[in-house]
Amino acid sequence: MKALVYMGPMDMRYMDVETPEPKPGEVLLKVKAVSICGSDLTGYKGQSIFRVPPLIMGHEFSGEIAKLGDNVKGLNVGDRVIVETNLYCGYCADCKAGFSNVCDNRKIIGTTMKAGSYNGAMAEYVVAPAEKIIPLPDNVTFNAAALTEPLAISLRATKHAGDLRGKTVVVYGAGPIGLLTIQCVKFFGAERIIAIDVVEDRLEMAKKCGATDVINSKEDVAGITRKMTDGVGVDVVFDAVGVPETVNGGVEIVRNGGKVVWIGLGVPKLEFDYKHAVCKEITFYCSYMYTTELKEGLDMIATGRMNVEQIITGIYPMSEGPRIFEELASRKSKDIKVILVND
User: Which segments constitute the Enoyl reductase (ER) domain (predicted)?
Assistant: First the structure.
């Protein structure tokens, strides 16, 4: 089969590899759509321990069952599906406590974890455990289905903030996770949604997703938000970037006693205004991946409560993957969310 293989920093190749065979309890999927995640780009640039070459990336995808391994029941060749790509163990202390998203024994399709690498869906075919297969409703397209995973991440982050009805919220970063978070907070009743980004095209997309206000981060963000809130500050900040400017900016613009939800993993370490945060009695939440939100997100797509396809700005053949990765990593491309499909 053909696959995009990550061979090292800034080195992605479209090449022939062996087609995987499903083992007992597994299924072989024909990949129909796979999305490029920001974490894939970080790995492509050689900046992530979770992408060790050689590796076929791709954990946001949809497909069709092409072959069943032995002992697989309840599934059929031709079924349209997505996959829960977090392959947690289910028996460790974290899993038993409901935190399968941080299971130390887990593998994640398309990544490299402590338990090893698992080739992903930037290929013609991918293998997955049958127990992780989730059937697609007939009205959900393969492209929309591929974005169920990032939607689940945004859903989990939104839940951390509690009741958002009537609240004023800020979403830092109008990339895919930020845009889907805007959709989520709107659905859960936020009254005023302020999107902050440095790229005007992304701010325009944020408006389409439900932002009531947008601020270019080159402007005086703290001053503008103070004016918008009569000097009080915003109720909740969602940080889908995770760099010093947004982390400390969130502390500055949230109200006393407000909430900040960290989602973005922009940098591994940063200086943080700890004293200011304590004196404002801010509650912080760290939100990582998802646990139970995948099926919930799929249902929201199927029932029209979320429009994930509107953030897709480019659909390209898998064979163009090396060029697409290079252009996204070097910021030559203005695409926000890219889908790759097999030629």
Answer: 8-340
Residues in CB range of 144: below 8 A, 6 or more apart: 301, 308, 309
How many C-beta atoms lie closer than 10 Å to residue 77's C-beta?
12
Residue ranges of domains in the chain, CATH in brackets: 2-136+308-341 (3.90.180.10), 153-286 (3.40.50.720)
The amino acid at 206: A
Residue of 296, 294, 251 lying closest to 270 (CA atoms): 251
**Banded pLDDT at 39 (limits 50, 70, 90):** very high
Strands (E), the chain: 2-8, 11-16, 26-35, 60-68, 80-83, 86-87, 107-108, 111-113, 116-118, 125-129, 133-135, 168-172, 192-197, 213-216, 234-239, 254-262, 283-286, 312-317, 337-341
Angstrom distance (rounded) from CA 108 to CA 222: 38
Residue 56's nearest CA partner among 133, 132, 145, 117 is 117
CB neighbours of residue 138 within 10 Å: 7
**Residue 73: DSSP 8-state:** -
Q: Report CA-CA distances (Å) from 137 to 67, 91, 144, 239, 339.
A: 20, 31, 11, 32, 20
CA distance 288 to 198: 24
To which residue do tokens 């830092």 refer?
A: 172
Residue-level pLDDT at 343? 85
Chain CA centroid to CA 220, Å: 28
Residue whose entry in the numeric block shows the structure tokens 């760099």:
243
Instruction: Reply yes or no on whether the pLDDT at 190 is more than 90.
Output: yes
Section 120-144 average pLDDT = 99
Report the C-alpha gap between 20 and 101 in whole angstroms: 26
Q: What is the pLDDT of residues 271-324, one digit of tens each?
A: 999 999 999 999 999 999 999 999 999 999 999 999 999 999 999 999 999 999
pTM of the full structure: 0.97
